[in-house]
Amino acid sequence: MKSHSIIPIFLPELACPHQCVFCNQRNITAVESLPSEEDVLDIIESHLKTIKAAERTCEIAFFGGSYTGLSIDEQKKYLKLAAPFVENGDINGIRISTRPDYIDDEILDVLKKYHVKTIEIGAQSMDEDILRRSGRGHRSEDVRRAAQLIKSAGFTLGIQMMIGLPGDTAEKSLETAREIVKLGAEGTRIYPLLVLEDTALAEMYKDGKYEPLSLSEAVNQTAPIYQLFEENDVLIYKCGLHPSEFLHNGKLLAGPWHPAFRQLVQATIFMKKAKLLLQKDEKIIGFEVHPSDINAALGFEKGNLKELQKNRPDFRILQNENIEKGEIHAIYN
Ligand code: SF4
């Protein structure tokens, strides 16, 4: 199977007049102005040199700000640079991310014309009170409307959500995830909320008006959401922020950041299933999983294995190519 690679082109907050309480887009992207046309072409061409076309599918991704918050002319300017790479077959498609209230039929026509395939909208939550307290400046109805327009126009729909927003709870986050599934999203990103310096959230945190989730709370709240998306074939493009996205700025103030957040979530899901199996059958002496699931099964720094070995020192977790992804097979003596 071909692997998939992304050529990321970051467009910072300059495109966005809003100020969500958590957002300091410059900290996230470390880019302080919109890239020039030469920059964009350089990024695409230098990535393409490192990608073996026969082995990969590849997309250009305009990320960072709200793409469709740019003027139509500016949107076209960037898309005109990227579109020829799709037309000559070097690239399989273009993806953009934006706000739900920046989607309408005219915008979708432009995106379609220039080969955009995937549109990701930042819902963050589907709860009105949370959206208001987070300063999002849009309503859940905007997400529903945008999702419906995007789907009817034939794009692939991604909807991003956050965990731990002001006023959020585990149940409210799960409800947001359920609605993302219902809206027909094909992909998602799950971001536990972090407190970055120079944001309104940082002030709320310093004033004692916002308490971030602990790491274990964030992992435990994300696990059922992750499972729900998997069960409904919603691709989880990302779960947690990569350190390169903000840590080099040294601006993380507080919050449940971990270098392997996704693995922690997957490990939690595995342990829940493993414990259920062990409760039903004490004769189990180990588990086998597909090789792609072995890191999740072992846990971060083999935390799951160590825990399972506390009462059963010889307990094993092995990989086996013949086992379906996501399945756990019990080993007996
Ligand atoms: S809409 Fe996006 S870019 Fe604009 S302030 Fe909110 S998070 Fe930042």
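^ iron/sulfur cluster complex. DSSP finds twelve helices and twelve strands in the chain. The first helix runs from residue 25 to 29.
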